[in-house]
Amino acid sequence: MDYIKEAFQKVKEDITNLNYELSSIKEELNEIQNSLLHIFSLVSSTTDTSTHLSTEKASNSTLRQMNKTDNISINTINTDIYQFKGKNTPLNNSSSGNDGVSTDRQTDRQTDTSTGNKGVISPKSSHNNIDNISKTITILNQLDEIKRDLRIKVKKLTNQEMLVLSTIYQLEDQGHLVDYNLLSNYLSLTQSSIRDYVQRISVKGIPLLKEKVNNKRVILHISDDFRKLASLNTLISLRDI
């Protein structure tokens, strides 16, 4: 009976520790939620900035086209004036005027190019942020599904089955080779009862591995994958939800 009292006392301690762990998990989830909201706001801001820059670039292109049209009109007017002056009138300003137009167009192109490339956020950056958010949400949804499935399996266990499972967890953590005889002595139950509980636990979806030693002794193990998925404290917390 002392073993049973110690086991229940250990379970109580685990529940207390679990409450602290749940509080920590809630804080982490809140931080993740805040981070996601911040990322969404950044993506929205990035989209608005890209739209503004595209509009501004289109406006600059329109202005350049208007300037080019004005320059062509001025050249046409100058040519008409020179025709009235006669063939012998020197056309010194023609070369200067053309050079000025060419220089202006080149300057405009250089200025627009250098200005257009500055501060422009690549659309790929926005897509990458959105992809990362989608992956994060997918992972969180998968974790919720795993947690829900595990909670259903644990809740199916009776109190006695949960006690046997918890004892196997604890004894393995302490470095013991857990067999039916050890569990029988530890829980003050017959070996046949232990076998029956182990069988029921496995049927309800909790993987318990059996390893035969010398074709006689059966060693019980908690699956490594299952341990990575849920600690004993996590199982107890899911059972209480």
Question: What does this protein structure show overall?
Answer:
- This protein has a domain at 34-140.
- The protein is mostly helical and 241 residues long.
- Strands 1-2 form a two-stranded antiparallel sheet.
- The protein has helices spanning 2-85, 92-117, 123-155, 159-173, 180-187, 191-203, 224-229, 232-240; strands at 208-213, 217-222.
- The radius of gyration is 39 Å and the shape is elongated.
- It has 8 helices and 2 strands, in the order ααααααββαα.
- Helix 3 (123-155) packs across helix 8 (232-240), helix 4 (159-173) crosses helix 6 (191-203) and helix 5 (180-187) packs across helix 6 (191-203).
- 80% of the residues lie in helices and 5% in strands.
- The model is unreliable at 76-98 and 100-115 (pLDDT under 50).
